[in-house]
Amino acid sequence: MTATLYVCTTCRAGEVLEEDAPRPGALLHAALSAADAPDDVEVVGVSCLSACSQGAAVALSEPGKWTYVYGRMTPADAPDILAGAAAYAASTDGLVPWRERPVQFRKQSLARVPPFQMPLEAAE
Amino acid sequence: MTATLYVCTTCRAGEVLEEDAPRPGALLHAALSAADAPDDVEVVGVSCLSACSQGAAVALSEPGKWTYVYGRMTPADAPDILAGAAAYAASTDGLVPWRERPVQFRKQSLARVPPFQMPLEAAE
To answer: Hey, which of A64, A69, B16, B49 has its CA 20 to 30 A from A19?
Structure first.
């Protein structure tokens, strides 16, 4: 399986921008696309992750795993994001031990959502 | 299919609470569980949706649909949340037209994540 790293390409990250100015989300997407993605991670641009006030935002998902969303990301965070994505892809359920998470993933979580197949007792 | 409405039961919603005080997330879960859920919506408590600074949080997910996460919810929002969950369950892809979304869903989005099966051109 391959983990998908979604990157919001339209995010203004709360900034007031000229109409033709590059958006922070597009700059983040460019930085992540230009870097060497881990083999088992696919970087996919999405036109809106609806995290507008907390962007730029990325999300990690893979069937059978918890989905994670992170906000307040900048192009400088690209190495951390890709390292975190690699750890996520290597995990069995999306739950990466705290100490193995990049600092930005520890600090900038916006949300996580359980996988569809989660046994209900594991959610409580 | 049934949509799942996840409710973070441990959320403190940014409040400083006594150790044994009921948590805002637990109160929200109780309000949602006490109400009549739509037939095609299952309310499931989760111990953490990692939206701690923007809680109380709920998430809507269903295979093949976009996943949505909403924050800053209170027990008073339970009717809006359940109405929004019903509209989500009735949709084919999780994308409910803006005017049909409850006001709180329009205002309090934390994030959304594409479904696994999304054609890549639809994400751009």
So the answer is: A69
